[in-house]
Specification:
Blueprint: H1 3-17, H2 20-29, E1 36-37, E2 48-49, H3 56-64, H4 69-75, H5 81-89, H6 91-94
Length: about 100
C-alpha cells in the first residue's frame, strides 16, 4: 500500500470522529487557517480551501491519480495557486482532518 493511500485511509478513519469544533481546532493548531476554512453552512462543515467549496481531499485525489498541480490549478482556477502549493507543503497536517 502506498504511503499516500495509507495517509488517506488514516485520515478517513479520523475524520469520522472529528466534529466541526475539532476540525476548527485542528486548523488553528496546525496553522492552516490561511488556506483552509470550516463553515457549517458550506459543505456541511467539511474543510475547504478558503473562499471556495473545493476540499483538499479532492485536490490530493486528483494529484494521486496523475493530474499535475498546473492542470488542477487550470481546472479549478478559483483556488489560488499559493493555497495549493501550501497544501502540498502541509499535506501531513491537513490529511487527519479530511
Amino acid at each position: 500500500m502506498s504511503r499516500n493511500l495509507k495517509l488517506i485511509n488514516m485520515s478517513q478513519e479520523i475524520s469520522k470522529e472529528m466534529n466541526l469544533r475539532q476540525r476548527r481546532d485542528h486548523i488553528k493548531k496546525n496553522g492552516l487557517q490561511s488556506i483552509i476554512w470550516v463553515d457549517k453552512d458550506r459543505m456541511s462543515g467539511y474543510p475547504c480551501f478558503r473562499g471556495t467549496r473545493v476540499t483538499p481531499d479532492v485536490f490530493f485525489g486528483y494529484l494521486d491519480s496523475g493530474t499535475t498541480l498546473e492542470e488542477f490549478a487550470a481546472s479549478f482556477h478559483w483556488v489560488p495557486l499559493e493555497f495549493l502549493k501550501e497544501a502540498l507543503r502541509l499535506r501531513e497536517k491537513i490529511m487527519p482532518m479530511l
